[in-house]
Amino acid sequence: ALERLHEIDTVVLDKTGTLTAGRPEVVSVIPVDHVAESELLRFAASLEQGSEHPLAGAVVAAANARGLRLGRSYGFQAVAGKGALGVVQMRNVAVGNAALMEEAGVDAGVLEPEAQRLRELGQTVVFVGIDGTPVGLLGVADPLKPEAWEVVQQLKADGRKLVVLSGDHAASVQAVAAQLGIDELAAGVLPHEKAERIRDLRASGRTVAMVGDGINDAPA
What is the pLDDT of residues 152-163, one digit of tens each? Predict the structure, then answer.
């Protein structure tokens, strides 16, 4: 591996936990009309207690910081690259990205303008649906690692081509890539699609190193 490393011409980087600190925090809580912020956060966090994902941890931490009493969840189901589903207080709860909302039969279109505004601020958007109805969204921010800029500039100076490959929404990925001066990226990719992207790069003649931190990056 070390001998081959000097042949690398392309470095593919995961975003969350690799370029960013992987310690996301909920910075926006935006319910729909007639839903309290505390209720939105409480239902989301009650479900996310069953997840090991960093975004889920941020939601639970935000609820705990507000002193909210969380309920038990039943039938917890993690949906790879999309979010989680389950039952909280006899209600079907979906917490995740737009693709999960569609899968769960939740029409989150009414939330999309606000979601896009948060993405343009570099936040990752987490939609929340209850019993098939959108009840709000959470904006999660994950700061860049302090050394990310220096590492990226060194790799560029060495003549390496850089690509950001992330399951997050395009606007959020673009915001991070722009901060680091990386212009090639792919967003909204599921774990198996990350592996396909690596295969495509190799097939085009590139010698690739993949840098990632999580189980979503293992196939790639």
Answer: 999 999 999 999
- Residue 6 burial by Cβ neighbours in a 10 Å radius (0-12, 13-18, 19+): exposed
Catalytic residue list contains 200: no
Q: What is the pLDDT of residues 75-131, one digit of tens each?
A: 999 998 899 999 999 999 999 999 999 999 999 999 999 999 998 888 989 999 999
Closest C-alpha to 13, from 219, 215, 213? 213
The whole model's pTM is what? 0.72
- Cα–Cα separations (whole angstroms), residue 143 to 7, 172, 184: 31, 12, 20
Phi first, then psi: what are they for 184, rounded to 5°? -110, 125
Give the pairing of strands 73-79 and 91-96. unpaired
**Which of 9, 14, 33, 200 is flagged as catalytic?**
14
